[in-house]
Fold this protein.
Amino acid sequence: MAQIIEMPKLSDTMTVGTLVKWLKKEGDAVKSGDMLAEVETDKATMELESFFDGTLLKQFAPAGSQVAIGAPLCAIGKPGEKVDAPAAAPAAPAAAPAEEKPAAKAAAPAPVAAPAPASVPAPAPTPAPSVAPAPTTAAPAGRIRISPLARKLAEEKGLDYSRVTGSGPGGRIVRVDILAAAKNPPAPAPAAAKAAAPKGGADAWPWRSVFDKNPIQPESTVALSNMRAVIARRLVESKTTIPHFYLEIEVDAAPLNALRVNLNAGLTKDGVRLSVNDFILKASAAALRAVPSVNSSWDATGIKYHGAAHVSFAVAIEDGLITPVIKDTDKKTVFQISTEAKDLGKRAKEKKLAPAEFTGGTFCVSNLGMMGIERFSAIINPPNSAILAVGATVKKPVVKNDEIVIGERLALTLSCDHRVVDGALGAKFLNAIKDHLENPALLLL
């Protein structure tokens, strides 16, 4: 009997996936472990793995379509075996840009200033066809519909995808369109249509590589990506269902900066260059051990206290953000944390994280200091009970030993879930982080 391969669910927020490309054709021999297709999610583009031997008898979803979780993708069986299309399975949400979520082999992906909550139950999808049919009309004028994979490929090849004609559903630009355009590049856009760059060229904007590779034209509408749709929904859920309150403290960052500079100047271990954020991740884990009540989550039946300190950190990626997790952060050295954070951050931006690498965090750190933001408040990333917002280190006058001197001050803001963390508890936790950062040598033990 033929085996029906369905769209798998690989994250707690996934409701649909976009079938980017079939890697096997109908009639091809398939072995267990072979990759059948590429599936795009809100956080990653992954490969769908076969767990059966046989022949790919039937494909139930065309490339470029959005498929609901549990809906049939293909059938594998004996050569010549007859297969009928299965009855309709759970439907994809009716809203146009469905959530493109992880499928089977690798995965990736959420916050920076406002991290995408990780465990709020998704609303029940509105009934619709299992596979979103390709609309017969093109996308509205000014609206560029392009899959994240196609967008990334266009960037790598230096193509202006706004001048590429899409062959996907509703005129959506997919991977094959970019590959075709690369062989026969479209004419460059008129100079007047190009977004103005600051004097010194596009590279004069230090954050352009993440946020402004493809400037949006004035008065245009760009279809929501899966990631942006999920972030929007979950942040609204977090902010409207969790009673936030905020605590702020200033840290004397001079000892930390001095130690870090000395280590990076010649005492680095295995060539690892430490960042301020590496110490903050370690200090947060140490504080979770010192004040374990903050290492908790609200649950309808009670408060869940976590045994492990898994600290996540926000990474800005194109069209959204994600929170990779460093497991058992308290048990790792600052050097190990630094190495792991760099690797996770790099693969997060490439959308190559596995689901286990961005889920399960018990506390989150969002750092905008490297972007010049002195202080801010972050939105809690459920099911965590708190999130730490880290600003830039600022030199300013401070009073020390009854004298005014130039100090290096670092602002930390803790957002707390008041159902779990009260003011005194949050203050105790924030002071524990401060104590560790102002005595950074303790973080090297």
Observations:
- The CA atoms of residues 77 and 232 lie 41 Å apart.
- The chain has three domains: 3-77, 148-222, 243-444.
- The chain has a mean pLDDT of 80.
- The two ends are 59 Å apart (CA to CA).
